[in-house]
Design a protein that fits this description.
234 residues; eight-stranded mixed beta sheet; two-stranded antiparallel sheet
Length: 234
């Protein structure tokens, strides 16, 4: 199963994820991902930059693109405790309950100016994958200054303390020619598929049969959620 910051693609390879201890930032499989906004966000989550993730929100008309934010925030080690969906064939939304928090996903109509931003909220900060969320080129990380932790009532958000968060933003432009429209390119940031091709090549060279950044288990977790949402909407 291969994941890039542009698309989730299902490669039917019967493989298992290598132990995390075997993965290093200099490995052939992972070094390409250091240049990508999605992987920057993933690393920030895994290193605790924003503390414990308590919620994530994403929106996109195609459900698989919005739902990729769920394993990004909460992993695929356990299945959701509950999935609730509502809406019609044109617009819909879902709430996915995990032991440690919730993922809220909306599926707006294609004929609308949807924001397409992924927002991960943690106990110590917030990560924003700016538009477009399914193929982001910018990640913004906001963290709570230390004085937030001294608030008498335990309100640690910057809004409740009347101060601004510490902000850092990083851009990861796609290869040129970038953007849309172009007569030979039909979707936004489609040029970013080069990262997926490079990732596949590097995994093969490293002797891996799946990308450690987005595993078979992650893909199956998303498909289970999609199936449950479809069942409820139908």
């Amino acid at each position: 199963i291969i994941f890039s910051r542009f698309h989730v693609s299902f490669f039917f390879l019967m493989i298992r994820r290598p132990p995390r201890s075997t993965l290093s930032s200099s490995s052939a499989a992972s070094d390409v991902y250091k240049r990508q906004a999605m992987e920057h966000a993933r690393a920030a989550v895994e290193t605790g930059t924003i503390g414990e993730v308590v919620s994530v929100h994403a929106d996109f008309p195609d459900k698989c693109y919005a739902l990729q934010a769920a394993p990004l925030a909460f992993g695929s080690g356990e299945m959701p405790e509950c999935v609730v969906a509502t809406g019609s064939g044109r617009v819909a939304a879902g709430v996915v309950k995990y032991a440690g928090g919730i993922a809220t996903v909306s599926f707006p109509a294609w004929q609308s100016e949807f924001g397409e931003v992924i927002e991960l909220t943690g106990t110590k900060g917030r990560i924003t994958l700016d538009e477009w969320g399914h193929c982001p080129t910018r990640v913004t990380i906001r963290t709570c200054p230390p004085q937030c932790w001294d608030e008498p009532q335990g309100h640690t958000s910057t809004s409740q303390n009347g101060i601004q968060p510490e902000v850092e933003s990083h851009r990861y432009p796609v290869p040129e020619p970038a953007g849309y429209p172009h007569s030979d390119w039909h979707y936004s940031n489609q040029h970013g598929f080069i990262y997926q091709a490079q990732a596949v090549h590097r995994c093969i060279v490293a002797g891996l049969l799946e990308c450690p950044q987005y595993t078979k288990a992650d893909s199956i977790a998303v498909m289970h959620i999609m199936d449950e949402i479809a069942r409820q909407l139908n």
